[in-house]
Specification:
Number of strands: 5
CATH class: Alpha Beta
CATH architecture: 2-Layer Sandwich
Strand order of the largest sheet: 1-2-3-5-4
Number of domains: 1
Bound molecules: adenosine monophosphate
Number of helices: 3
Largest sheet: 5 strands, antiparallel
Order of helices and strands: HEEEHEEH
Distance between the termini: 47 Å
Structural class: alpha+beta
CATH superfamily: HIT-like
Radius of gyration: 15 Å
Shape: globular
């Protein structure tokens, strides 16, 4: 199935990376952009997206993973601090059967609290003002 192995440069994260559609950005460097998930599975749900194009982990250049996961660690520490979380869930999906819905490699970072389950994946849209406030908290934690 060709459509399942081809990178589509018009996917929504590629458009966010190019600045064609808005996002609540918390971090950017040469390798990645991090921004708030618009349908968070919990407060502070953040996505870390490598700038290099690939559908997911399966077709990515292995050179992407060093800078990507160094940034995942940096963002995971920052979201834990920003939301005073008990833990952090890090998730990454590959192809529709796994739950992937946006076909540009990305890693989910979700603050976790004892006894509180995750909300559904790609569930309800969060209010822009809440996303903006949460992004501010993470930027502050990154800077401190
Ligand atoms: P996945 O299922 O791993 O491909 O996750 C894609 C994630 O992107 C989901 O958690 C969606 O809520 C999220 N998402 C979809 N569109 C946007 C967008 N425009 N900005 C931020 N997050 C998005």
């Amino acid at each position: 199935m060709a459509e399942r192995t081809t990178y589509d440069s018009n996917n929504i994260f590629a458009k966010i990376l190019r600045g064609e559609i808005p996002s609540h950005r918390v971090y950017e460097d040469d390798a990645v952009v991090a921004f708030m998930d618009v349908m968070p599975q919990g407060p502070g749900h953040t996505l870390v997206v490598p700038k290099a194009p690939s559908r997911n982990l399966l077709d990515a250049d292995p050179a992407v993973f060093g800078p990507l996961f160094a940034n995942v660690q940096k963002l995971a520490r920052a979201v834990k601090k920003a939301f005073d979380a008990d833990g952090v869930t890090v998730m990454q999906f590959n192809e529709p059967a796994s739950g992937q819905t946006v076909f540009h490699l990305h890693v989910h970072i979700i603050p976790r609290f004892e006894g509180i389950p995750l909300k559904p994946h790609s569930g309800q849209m969060e209010k822009p003002e809440v996303l903006a406030e949460n992004a501010g908290k993470i930027r502050k934690a990154l800077g401190s």
